[in-house]
Amino acid sequence: MKDVDKIEYYVNSDLQIYLPWAINRSVRGFARGFSLGYLVKSGVGLVKLLISTLRKRKDSHFKDRLASLLLDTETLQFACFLGASCGGFIASYWALRRIRKKRDGWNGLIAGGIAASALALDASPKAHGRRVALALYAAVRAAEFICNGLAQRGWFKSSLYKHADTILFQVACTEIMYSWFYHPHTLPPSYNQWITIMADMDTRLIKALYKLHIGEVTYGTKSDVLVTYCLDRGIDPKEADLVHFVTRYVMCYPYDSYILNFVHRWIKGFIRSMFLYGPVHLIPLLIFRPKLLISQPLISLLRVLRTSAQSASFLATFIAVIWGAISVVRQILKTDHTLGPFTGSALCGLSLLLEKKSRRRELAMYVLPRAIHSWWQQAVQYKIMKPLPGGEILIFCFAAAAIMWSYEADQSAIRPSLFNLMQRYFGAI
Question: Which of 35, 93, 120, 317 shows the greatest Cβ crowding within 10 Å of its Cβ?
């Protein structure tokens, strides 16, 4: 008997047969979701604990810290949320399927919305940022699936749709990078810190640009905003006291050339990005295709090196373009105008064209929720929008409803890798 026939048999059987089958699927779904949430959350904490222990070499409280980590309330709440989402969807979906006797998308939509309310279980004080991130990510994915379905029906015939990933990435990065310069509080702290590390830009320079932007310091009036920056580099503080135009050497240290600075930033960005993207491309090969690595080690590793270098070139260019735009605007206007960071923020996203087409959409999906969050934060700050307590749960429910509608009624709109992942945790429907 085929799997589809088995499902139809159980769904349409008497309650004595249907209930054990449905309960079994729901419990297994809960177990898979709970295990995933627990392993992800505790795994991150375990890595941090091991690194901390290795640095200290001797840690008399290691066992206590490990026990506290494994029984952490926040970890258990997150695991319960994922478990309840998976198990709740399965239970709700098959109950609706049995009652309605249809497979038209509405079962998935209703069950998805109900199951997503489990996000409220992730209720620890530190979980708000995570709930917002999950809600926005789900909303972006829902929009992607809907647009894919419409495109397959011929709604989007413009050639621009083929480059929608690059356009979205550029728009999102404009907001993110401009916020990094002038509205850092609207970005998640960890994400903000990661950008600062990859950009390799001294925070005192960023602070000086911010103060010029808001008018706290101005050219023509002496300021010590860059004094410590100059002294740490052996530069005469008079070159950056704002009485005169901050010299090129201050901005491009250790070079006195915008071009050399651009090249230097690109090379450093490339090296750092290789350390980032090397594992990103190697780990899937180790996990999902170990036989290929064993049978063709040289070819496999060269392929990983090539794709890693391509991704690193994209990120290095992303970083260098921002610096280059700031340099060009400085050279033309002879002032550190807001236009420099804005131009760099607007142009850096075009570097995505250096990345493989198959990865562009995922990168766009990664940055877009963060840009939306930043826009929302600023809208609330300037009182354009009002705060919506618990709004992330509502957004997550609507997004999950749309996603699960596609999962039931329009599966071709979902990318194969994501569809396989959904099948793993929600089962075939």
Answer: 93
Residue 341: inside a domain: yes
The per-residue pLDDT for 386 is 87
State pTM to two decimals. Answer: 0.84
Whether cis (ω within 30° of 0) applies to the bond prior to 341 is: no
Are 96 and 175 in the same domain?
Answer: no
**DSSP states along 38-86:** HHHHHHHHHHHHHHHHHHHS--TTHHHHHHHHHT-HHHHHHHHHHHHHH
2-8 mean pLDDT = 72
Is 128 within the bounds of a domain? Answer: no
Q: What is the mean pLDDT of residues 70-80?
A: 90
> What's the CA gap between 403 and 422, in Å, rounded?
10
Residue 59: pLDDT band with limits 50, 70, 90: low
Residues 420, 421, 426, CA angle at the centre, nearest 5°? 100
Which range, of 44-58, 197-211, 220-234, averages the lowest pLDDT?
44-58
Instruction: Specify whether 96 is located in the same domain as 179.
Output: no
Pair (199, 95) in one structural domain: no
Contact assessment for residue 396 and residue 131, using Cβ atoms and an 8 Å cutoff? yes
Q: What percent of the chain has pLDDT over 90?
A: 61
- Rounded CA separation 399/384 (Å): 24
- Domain identity same for 65 and 213: no
Structural domains counted in the chain: 2
Contact 406, 149 (CB under 8 A): yes
How many angstroms from the chain centroid is the CA of residue 361? 12
Quick one: pLDDT band at residue 3, thresholds 50, 70, 90?
A: low
202-219 mean pLDDT: 92
Q: Decide: residue 67, CB within 10 A, 0-12 exposed, 13-18 middle, 19+ buried.
A: exposed
List phi, psi (to 5°) of 162. -65, -25
Q: What is the pLDDT of residue 400?
A: 97
| Residue 400 within any structural domain of the chain | no
The predicted pLDDT at position 404 comes to 97
Query: Whole-angstrom Cα distance, residue 33 to residue 41?
Result: 12
Q: Which residues, 6+ apart, have CB-to-CB distance to 170 below 8 Å?
A: 346, 349, 350, 352
Cα–Cα distance, 24 to 128 (Å, whole number): 32
* Whether residue 184 sits in one domain with residue 70: no
Mean pLDDT for the stretch of residues 363-389: 91
Give the whole-angstrom CA distance, residue 340 versus residue 325.
Answer: 6
